[in-house]
Automatic annotation (TrEMBL):
Keyword terms: ATP-binding, Cytoplasm, Nucleotide-binding, Nucleotidyltransferase, Transferase, tRNA processing
Organism placement in taxonomy: Bacteria, Bacillati, Bacillota, Bacilli, Bacillales
One of the protein's GO biological processes: regulation of translational fidelity
Source organism (scientific name): Brevibacillus brevis (strain 47 / JCM 6285 / NBRC 100599)
Name of the protein this chain belongs to: Threonylcarbamoyl-AMP synthase
MF-aspect GO terms: ATP binding; double-stranded RNA binding; L-threonylcarbamoyladenylate synthase; tRNA binding
Subcellular location, principal: cytoplasm
Cited InterPro entries: DHBP_synth_RibB-like_a/b_dom, Sua5-like_dom, Sua5/YwlC_C, Sua5_C, T(6)A37_SUA5, TC-AMP_synthase_SUA5
Amino acid sequence: MEMNGVTKVWSVDNDVENQPSCAQIVDAARFLREGAVVAFPTETVYGLGANALSNEAVEKIFTAKGRPSDNPLIVHIGAWDQLSTVASEVPEKGKKLMEAFWPGPLTVILPKTDQVASLVTAGLDSVGVRMPDHPIALALIKEAGVPIAAPSANRSGRPSPTTAAHVLADLDGRVAGVVDGGATGVGVESTVIDVTQDPPMILRPGGITREQMEPVIGYVELDPSFQVGAAEAPRSPGMKYTHYAPEGEMWLVSGECEKVRGKMEDMLQQAKQHGQKTGVLATEETAPFWQSHASVDVVLVVGSQSDLEGVAQQLYAVLREFDDQEVQYIVGETFPRNGLGMAVMNRLEKAAGGRVLSV
């Protein structure tokens, strides 16, 4: 199926689980079966899907995103009976996690089968699998009849999309279609955990936290490759390259509140003196101070320090808003690394390209 530079949009209500023969879902699933690339909503962000069993189809994902092919993709399944198609075995701790958190924002690294397209795994002998907790995603995958490889539906390096409009801003004319199911919920991508080793290791923090998993399977390690610039080959999406970045230069400042504010003021004043349009990534608690500051052109509120779920939901939309307002220099505050804060900080540090100052 050729795109001819035209991206089709299907608008679907979230009650598709009550309409298994929804015409839009049937049509989008046909595109996927025929080897096209289709974006669709999950509970985390919009994914860019292709048949995970076809290298030819998966290659179109990398082309559309401009994504390096040494970065593995996550395979999405719509039913438990699809798991054996992509995973050759499931360790006991993996089964416990799936029973506890699927459908949901948890990707489990498992030994792969030979049916999985080699481009999906970037040459690794393992594959990341998850079952999304979104009625449109589940209906689409079930109707397609094949597991779907799907990274986030954005140009590589850009903030991940949480609405169909974000997808179209990046990929209109580059993909065959977009299933528009409204805004996503969690806002940051799934947690990725490798259960092929013991103890299991989190390779990417996300919507399911370490604190939630440890009561289910015991001690869980954290991969040191969360840091930008780690040299080893990535075993999970999001472990390599700068991700989620706005077009402007972005810095994060951490430390004691008054010192952070003073450092941010100095940085913003210097940027303003150099003629740059400045912005602050603020919380509800700090926004009033910055909104009246002479050195700040744009203040965007990402949520409250006391509501990390809300911060995660708004994060990518706020990063994209800085681009919409053509902000050239952005300074943001940091968040505690417990619970969902680990995922929020992981995305912020990658968005800033590792530019983090401690004061």
